[in-house]
Amino acid sequence: MLERIRELIGEKLGDLRFEVLLADPPAGGEVRGHLSTNAAFPFAKQMGVSPIVAAEELKKYLEEKGADFFSKIEVAEPGFLNFWLKPEVIREEFERIVGAGKEWGRPRKTRKGFAHGPRGKAIVEYSQPNIAKPMHVGHLRSTIIGDALANILEFAGHEVIRWNYLGDWGTQFGKVIAAYKLWGDKYEVEKTPVEVLAGLYARFHEEMKQDPALEARGSEEFRKLETGDKENRELWEWFREESIKELNKIYKLLGIEFDEWKGESSYRESLLPLIALLLERGIARESEGAIIVPLEKFNLPPALIRKSDEGTLYLTRDIASLEERVKNYQADKVLYVVDNGQSLHFQQLFAIAEILDLKGNFSHIKFGLVLGEDLKKLSTRAGRHIALLEVINEAVERARKVIEGKQPEMSDEEKKEIAQVVGIGALKYNDLSQSRVADITFDWDKMLSLQGNSAPYLQYTYARLKSILRKAGNTPSLEVGVIGKEADLRLILKLAFFPEVVKEVSESYLPHQIANYLYDLARAINDYYEKEPILKAEESLRGARLHLIKAASETLKTGLGLLGIGVVERM
User: Fold this and answer.
1) What is 41-72 written as a DSSP string?
2) How, if at all, do strands 290-293 and 303-306 pair?
3) Pairing relation of β-strands 361-365 and 109-110?
4) Which of 131, 193, 498, 502 has its CA 20 to 30 A from that of 304?
5) Model confidence over 446-493: pLDDT tens digits?
């Protein structure tokens, strides 16, 4: 339906961009149609006339070409077009929604491919923890946003590789090895590896204040690691393996899996040949003993790729990694879900990729800080980083208390299961319902509220719809002819926009747009349920409305699933 409307307008406007939006439902004011478009504004600019004149011409054109679609078209100041669709058009769309079932929202495939253009292979890099260090709250946003975008791109038809890029190389690992050799205990590391290794690293830094010679010892241990020393290599591999086991415990709690676990260490053999190639081709040059890539033509400062002590940098390894992703993995898109503070790094990386003629769509998916309720950076507690596991456990524990207050008669097992889904859902939705480019705040009461824009509200709405369907028993076959009331038609139109939202987010990489849609849908379905009889409606209408309730519940479940959020059948 929406594709057909866009095609009709597009035949008149050509390549001009325009939007078709769901008209705001009337709230005691004048009804403004089912759909609205701003198409007259770009059309007016092209024609050199006022938007009102352009809108009148478009109205006349659409009344002729879309006579089978529109029951009424109006021009509204200062140049919008409002459409009323024929009920049979909306009923046909409802049949498509019901027919698609749980697949509603996926892009439609045609003989030529996907309806909204070709799909390719996308690598989404996110989370990026360091080995031998606990994941802290700073890793939260990258992990949650990256997983959601990977889900959305896959749902939209892309082949997706979920990539966890580990911080597992550099001088700090020389310090960890040195600290272990000085004070480490094999049994303690095996028992709680990340906590113990992080403690050894912290102790090393403290001891350095009294004994500066330790810094040289750490550098020497890393030099030995780089040059293949057997003992250091075995220690490093052990630290890495134990760290990944710990990381996987957190990822399991969050319901997150990766296709690739690659760290900076994967590229250590590639760096010297890469630097030599850049020098040979005149892309890089020496500067005061270091190696840089001049980027004046991109209005960027020079990129440092080798320090004067011959040490390589994160950027050097990122160049090697991007080259591998394009050439070996054949990636068309590479998304780096990394905080705002790394903007210059990625500008330089993408500029160097252009110089190297690496083809692809490379995007830095920026995000802001995590703030506490006092709007201060949520990064330290008693002088240390807040461990991500602490935040997860607190979310689940708070959800458990809410459930015990609302449903004390539930079994402990059911409370535990629901608390896990609701608590982690609240944690994820709190992030994903806010624009990723802005700083986000932690307000536990708001996050776990059963009212307002929260995961528990959406999960409760889903559980409520499932309860209605359970009470109804079997859902009869759909008779669309009985649907004619405006409340039914508007809810169907709301559902019809779900594929549009998925398409938009797969291009904008802004998952809060899906969260906003789901919140609006939940509000609409709750309002509909309160005002329109469902179980007590006349038999054929009852059947149609049960299908509408089922479609809404499946859309909520699908949308929350794309955000990495689960649902429960009862709350």
Assistant:
1) HHHHHHHTS-HHHHHHHHHHHHHHHTTTTEEE
2) antiparallel
3) unpaired
4) 131
5) 999 988 899 999 999 999 999 999 999 988 888 888 998 999 999 999
